[in-house]
Every structure is written in structure tokens, then in C-alpha cells.
Amino acid sequence: MIRIIFIITSLVLSFVVKAQDLEKSLLWKISGNGLEKPSYLFGTMHVVCEINFDDDIIKALDETSQLYLEIDMDDPKLQATMMKGMMMKDGVTLSSLITEEDAIIVNDFLKTNIGTSLKFVDKFKPFMISSMFIPKLLDCPMKSIEMELVKMSKEQQEEIFGLESVEDQILVFDKIPYKIQAEEIVKTAKDNMTSDKAEIKKMLAIYEDEDIEGMLEIMNESENIISSEFDDLLLNDRNSNWIPIIEKVSKDKPTFYAVGAGHLGGEKGVIKLLRKKGYHVEAVK
């Protein structure tokens, strides 16, 4: 009887171990499957208060020969390309997607927080407008991990590339209905960013804890419909598109990949997708 209980317990424990979430780590080493030298995968958060790269991250940057971000943030045409993609298609305007009452609320909100009125951004894609008040969500001056990585790579005279183009990223937000994007701006304006501030504060705490599974969970549970209901467009499809690029690039040169931490965790995250391809992906502690 004791032996049977032991066997059952062992099987249960084995299942639990296999079902465990990924370790808490933002830095992961990619090796095996024919790679001559390891590459590294690092989870970023696009807006932070402080940037503190530890010795492991510095070492990984030193051991690699190039930097890959989600997009090439060193591209001199980046800003011009983004400007071209700012407008909604087919002459749609933000004011046409919301009620007159809500347009007044949004107009006052924009004047207060970004110093412009609705009429000047009325044709902009709502997600572009939302990005303008991101700095207001933080209780500190905004810093960019990606730009710091670009700076360090330049100092090492290394090239910077993107896993996708700016056009690819803009296209994602053309696939999410403008009406839904507009409704999120109305929600933000009506509660004066209270919910957004609380969510980003929680995300920063989870990020500092290096909990990549937690980052994915908070996105899935977000009150923001764009984050919670369009995970295939925002995360999963893009993760899948990146894998062949990561495979090809890593075989050519040891590379430091830095993407949003939400892309790392989960069954459809970059880590497990690479493991399914036969790579050894381990947390760097």
C-alpha cells in the first residue's frame, strides 16, 4: 500500500514539475541545436523609472556581437516611417468613433496631459495618441531600456537590427478595430489615467521581480481590452514570426535579443517556442 501511494505521489509531483511556470529571470541563454556560440534573450519593459543592468547582462552583451530589438531603434528613417503610419485609414477620425459628450471629455484630457486639442490629433490612430501620454503614467522621469541597449551596443561598435519592421508593428494596430482603440482612450480620459497608473505600477513591480509569467498574466487580465483580448496579434503571432529569424541569426553570430518581457513567458512565448525547436534555453541567474 505504501509503495502504491509512493508511486502515485511521484507521478503527481512529476506532473506538477512539468507544469511549472518558467523561472523568474529576465535573461536567458540560448545554446545547443548546432549553435557554435550561445546567444542571449532579455526581457525588457518599454518604460521604466530606473535602469540597472547587472553583471550577467553586461557579460552577455560582451559575449555577443550584435543587438536585435523588436524594431531597429537606430534606424535613421524610424521617425519618418512612424509619422507616415500615424493616420487612420479611409479618413476615419477619433471624434467619429465616439459620442460628442465623450469627445469633449477626451479633448479636455488631451489639453491637460499632452498640451494639444482633439482636432490636432483627430486623424491619428488611437494607439498613437495613447502613446503620447505614457510618460504621465509614471511617477518618475521615463527611461528606455531599449535606448540604453542601443547606446551600449554603439559603444561596442556593434550593429543594431530589428526582428520586425516599424511597418509590421503599425499594421498590428490597423488590425485591432479603431473603435476599440478609441473606447480605451475614452476610458482613460474619464478616470484620468487612474486605472492605467495602477496597472503600470503593478507591472513595474512584477518586472522588478523578474516574473515573466506574471507579466504575461497581468496583460491577459488587464482591464484594457486591447491587451487582454488581442494577445494573438500583440504577442503570439509575432513570437512565432520571430523564431525563424532568431534561428538564422543565432547560427550566424552570437546575438543579444531584447524584446518586451511579455513575449517570453507562456506556452506560446519565445522561450518555449525555441525549446520546441530543440534549443537549450536556460535562465541566467
Automatic annotation (TrEMBL):
It holds the Pfam family TraB_PrgY_gumN. The keyword Amino-acid biosynthesis does not apply. Coiled coil: none annotated. Its cofactor is Co(2+); Mn(2+). CDD domains: Tiki. InterPro entries: TIKI1/2-like, TraB/PrgY/GumN_fam. The keyword Flavoprotein does not apply. It comes from the Bacteria. It is found in: Membrane. Keywords: Glycoprotein, Hydrolase, Membrane, Metal-binding, Metalloprotease, Protease, Signal, Transmembrane, Transmembrane helix. This is TraB/GumN family protein. It comes from Flavobacterium ponti.
